[in-house]
Amino acid sequence: MGREEAAEFPELADDPAWYPREDELSRVPFRGAASAGAVVDATVDVVAGLAGIAAVAGVLGMLHPLLLALLVVAALPAGWAEVLVARMGYATVHLLSTSLRRKWILNELMADRATAPEVRSYGMSRFLLAQFSAVTRVEQGERLRLARRQTGVRVLGEAFAALSAGVVYLTLGLLLVFGVVPLAEAATAALAVGVGRTTLIALMRTVSRCYEEGLYFTDYLDFCTLARERTPEPSPGAASPAFDTITLRDVSFSYPASDVAVLDRVNMEIKRGEIIALVGENGSGKSTPARILAGLYRPDRDEVRWDDVPTTEIDPAALRARIGYVPQDYTRWPLTARQNIEAGDARGDAPVIAAGAAAGLGPVVDRLPHGYDTLLDRRFAGGQELSGGQWQRIAIARGLYRDVPLLIFDEPTAAMDARAEHALFADVSARVLGRGAPAGEEDRQPRTVVLITHRMTSAQLADRIYVLDRGRIVEHGAHAGLMAQDGLYAELFRLHLAVYAAPSGAVEESGAAAG
Ligand SMILES: Nc1ncnc2c1ncn2[C@@H]1O[C@H](COP(=O)(O)OP(=O)(O)OP(=O)(O)O)[C@@H](O)[C@H]1O
C-alpha cells in the first residue's frame, strides 16, 4: 500500500520529509507485515504457557496461597527485563532504518547492470565498497551497543529473579519449619515452584516476543492508516473523453519542501488537434508544466482546466487515463517489446503494430528474433538488448499506443540525432494530427501533442511554441512570429542551427527558410 501511495503522489518522493517514510516503506513490508505471522505464533505460545502456569498455580494455590503470590513476584524481574530487551531491539531497528535503506541502495548500485559501465569506467567499486562498509560499521556499532545493553538488562533481570527465587525457597523453608506445610507437601511445593518458575520465565519471554512483534505489526497498521489517509478520495468528476481547450491559468508551482517557485504565473492554451512545443534552456521549467498537465503534480496556485472543468474536480486516475505521457526518464521494462508498448493494456496486434510503426520501430522489430514478442532484457535467457535510441522509440510507441486525446513527449528523443528526431516528430505529427499521413494510417480523431525539446528544428513543427525562462513564459507564438520578434527563441534557434545543421538537408533547409 505504501508503494502505491508513493506511485500515486510522485511529489512525496521529492519531499525530503518523505524519506523517513521511505524508511518505513523499506521496513514495514519486510519487518512489519512479516510480523503478523510471528504475532499469531507468539499468541499461541502465550496461550500454551498460560495453561502450563494455570496447572502449577493450581498445585501451589492448594498447598499455600502465599507460595503462588511469591512465585509471581519471583518471575517479575525476568519478565520486566524481557520487555525492556524487546523495546530496545525495536528502537534500534527504527534507528537503523535509514542506514539499512542506504545499504540496500548501495548494494543494488554495485550489482546493477545499468550502473556497471560507470562503476567500471570510473573504477568506483572500491569507493562504493568503502561507502557500504562505512554504513555497515555504523550498523555493526549500533547492533553491538544494543547487544551490550540487552545483556546488561538480562543479567540484572536474572539476578533479581535468582534473588526472588531465593526468597520463595526461604519462605517455603520457613513454612516447613513452623509446621504450616508438612514435609511431603513442601517437597511437592519445591518441585512445583521450580517448574512454575521455569514456565513463568518462558511465558514472560513469549509475552515479550509477542509484544515486540506487536510493535512491528502496529507500525504496519499505522502505515496502512497513513497511506489510506493520504490517498485522495476519487473525485466524482469523470474526465471528458476529449477536450476542445486545456488552459493553464496563472499556474505557479514549487516542488515540495522548497520555497523556490519553479513556475511563476504560467498561462498556456492547448487546443484539440494542435502541436504545442515548450522550449527553453536547462532548468527553465519545461518539464514541470508537462508533469502538471500529465496529472502527476498539482499546481500550488490557480489551476488547469479541461474545457470548463478544473482538473482538481476530475478523478486523477481518470484524468491520467486520458493522457499519454512519455517522460525524460522512461522505464526499460524487463518485458517483451509488445508488453513494453502495451504497458498492461493488451488490445491485440493491430494497435501495437500501428504505434510501433509510428514510432519508427518497424525495422528494429524486424531484426528481433521473435518480433514484438522478443524479451527486452539480457538478464534472462533469450533476452535481447536495444540501443538507447531504439529504447526511446519503444517509450514513444508506449505513449502513442494509448488511445487518448493528449500526448506529452518530454524530450524522449535525446539519444537520437537531430535529423532522426525531426523525422520522427514530423511523422508522429502527421499521424496523430491527421496532417498528411499515409491514407489509413492517420488517427481517427486528431490528438494534441505537447512536445518538450531542445531541438529547435522539432519545435518548429509546432502550431504554438512557449518559451520558458526561469519558470516564466517569456515568449509564445508560431515559429515565424517568434523569429520575427528576434528574442530568446530566435537566439536559441540560430544557435541550434549553427551547431547541428548539416551543410545540406531538410532540417537545415526548413530552418533557414523559416529563419
Ligand atoms: N523533482 C524535483 N524536485 C525539486 N526540484 C525540482 C524537481 N524537478 C525539477 N526541479 C527544479 O525545477 C526547476 C525546473 O526544472 P524542470 O525539470 O522543469 O526544467 P527543464 O527546463 O525541463 O530542464 P531540462 O531542460 O534540464 O530538462 C529546476 O530548477 C529544478 O532544479
UniProtKB/TrEMBL annotation:
Pfam families for the chain: ABC_tran
TM ranges: 36-60, 155-180
Keyword terms: ATP-binding, Membrane, Nucleotide-binding, Transmembrane, Transmembrane helix
Example of a GO MF term: ATP binding
InterPro entries reported in the protein's UniProt record: AAA+_ATPase, ABC1_TM_sf, ABC_transporter-like_ATP-bd, ABC_transporter-like_CS, P-loop_NTPase, Type_1_exporter
Principal place of residence: membrane
Mode of membrane association: Multi-pass membrane protein
All copies of domain ABC transporter, residue ranges: 246-495
Subcellular location: Cell membrane
PANTHER family assigned: ATP-BINDING CASSETTE SUB-FAMILY B, ATP-BINDING CASSETTE SUB-FAMILY B MEMBER 6
Protein name according to UniProt: ATP-binding cassette subfamily B protein/ATP-binding cassette subfamily C protein
Species assigned in the record: Streptosporangium brasiliense
